[in-house]
Write a structure and sequence with these properties.
- 2 copies of one chain form a homodimer.
- The first copy, chain A, is built from 12 helices and 9 strands.
- The first copy, chain A, is α/β, with parallel strands linked by helices.
- In chain A, the strands form 2 sheets. In chain A, strands 3-2-1-4-5-6 form a 6-stranded parallel sheet.
- The two termini of chain A are about 35 Å apart.
- In chain A, about 55% of the residues are buried.
- The interface between A and B is large, with 93 and 93 residues.
Chain lengths: ~300, ~300
């Protein structure tokens, strides 16, 4: 199905990777008529077959360069660890004026692993739609995933303003509010709001897997007391998160250090029975929740 | 409103405390006609007024002993720190054959702080409905809170079997599945499935409050990446959780030690770039989530 001319932002959009985010972007682009043609490339034929079956791709290819050929916009939607080799593969196929973007949770990697492969006339606009679920794969996507969420773009200072605006418009039409940010600042903020929570959730759920089988069964049964919420987060895609942790290592280890200090302080307060210190701390955290409700992200 | 005779389990049920759990128990008892008369005692007149206004109490009193007088069942629904003094206050008012239970998240305290005050003819059946929300107070309760969740009872080995059965039946009629467990085992399992997750959530949210104002605002904005789920847990009642941590100190510090070891190991794997170790760990945690879905607690 070709989109109507009026709302089309890109004559041809190529998505490299069609998991939760990529397939959701394809779906909303389809629904809103944001791209004249949606080309999808993925690592396995199974994903490509699924993309055709679910109807969110106009063409599919195992070769990223083939999908990227003649594309006005190429969006990397794979785990971060694949960025470098994909950029190397598809760069020669890019036409002058093409925009290369992505949806990854760390943004520095676009400058270190992708930019060096791109030719003169290609515009790089790194992007991060801050949304997701614990599910993965092409069947997990849905067009509404982006609604009322933030999308952060981290273009370089010299990046073509028109290219940045076109990518902004794509995400706005998908339902997001777009904000531009310095790349290092993005990686610092997300280390705290996303990467550390995931690391902690993976850890605590891992701690439970090391228990004996009998105790483990009880952990499942009585998970409604709080544990359950952590397992939801810790069910996210393992390869994606491995790559995020490794690529945002410095910022993540920094906030992890602060967290560990704070945990040690609470541990000591519990160990010493310091009632007042504990109550004060827990009252403060309740106010933070109110801040999030005020920011309409609850 | 008096309940119909047929389904009434207790002619008079006294609830000491009418927050989220207490008021929910009153509501479901009302709806199912489980008690002929529901007496509510609370620390403030405001809560008692609310209980009458919301219609889940037949009588109210600031004096726990007055509420407990002639009661067939007394349920402590306050923070753990108040158990000892409440038990001391109401014990002389209890009639022979009365049952004393509670809804707290640690169970050892019933044996250390409550049992010593109870007379010969009184039966103690400690209970823990494993459910909740991040909201607190009499208005936060609802009759459906207990549906399809577990309730754990930890009676002593010599406790009257008929008393245990009557308390079990109360929770079954509220929609729960009831399991009996050794008190120390309960406190160990809950330290992992509930107390540690709450402590971690309180810590990470606290770490964010110590940031500068500008960064804090961004944490709110971009919380959809994972942080949000932690703030929900960390919005729970501060006094209730302070008391839980202090009362289950030993078991909590034990699982916290395991968690810290595991976190240090993951930190080292990230710091050293050990891809395989990270991916293996995150794949294992995904299976745990499947276990919880299988246990129908998701």
């Amino acid at each position: 199905m070709a989109a109507t001319g009026k709302d089309t932002l890109f004559a041809r959009m190529a998505l490299i990777g069609a998991g939760l985010i990529g397939s959701s972007l394809a779906r909303v682009a389809r629904r809103q008529g944001l791209a004249g043609h949606i080309a999808v490339s993925a690592r396995t034929q199974g994903t490509l077959d699924k993309a055709l079956e679910l109807g969110f791709a106009d063409s599919v290819s195992l070769d990223a360069a083939e999908a990227a050929e003649d594309a006005d916009l190429v969006v990397l939607c794979t785990p971060l660890g694949a960025y470098g080799s994909i950029a190397e593969t598809l760069a020669p196929a890019l036409k002058s004026g093409a925009i290369v973007s992505d949806v990854g949770s760390c943004k520095k990697i676009m400058f270190t692993d992708v930019a060096p492969h791109l030719g003169e006339g290609v515009h790089m606009v790194p992007g991060h739609p801050v949304t997701g679920t614990e599910h993965s794969g092409p069947e997990a996507g849905f067009a509404e995933l982006f609604e009322n969420r933030w999308c952060i773009l981290t273009p370089g200072v010299d990046t073509d303003a028109a290219a940045v605006e076109r990518v902004s418009e794509l995400w706005r039409r998908a339902g997001m509010t777009v904000e531009t940010m310095d790349v290092a600042h993005h990686d610092q903020v997300l280390a705290l709001t996303s990467h550390l929570p995931h690391l902690i959730a993976y850890t605590i759920v891992g701690t439970a897997t090391d228990l004996g089988d009998e105790l483990k069964k009880e952990v499942f049964k009585f998970s409604a007391g709080g544990f359950r919420d952590f397992t939801r987060i810790a069910a996210s895609d393992p390869v994606m998160w491995r790559d995020i942790f490794l690529n945002n290592k410095d910022a993540l280890l920094d906030v992890l250090g602060r967290f560990t200090e704070d945990l040690t302080a609470l541990q000591r307060a519990i160990s010493r029975g310091e009632e007042k210190a504990l109550e004060d701390h827990f009252t403060r955290t309740r106010d933070i929740r109110r801040g999030i409700i005020d920011a309409k992200q609850d």
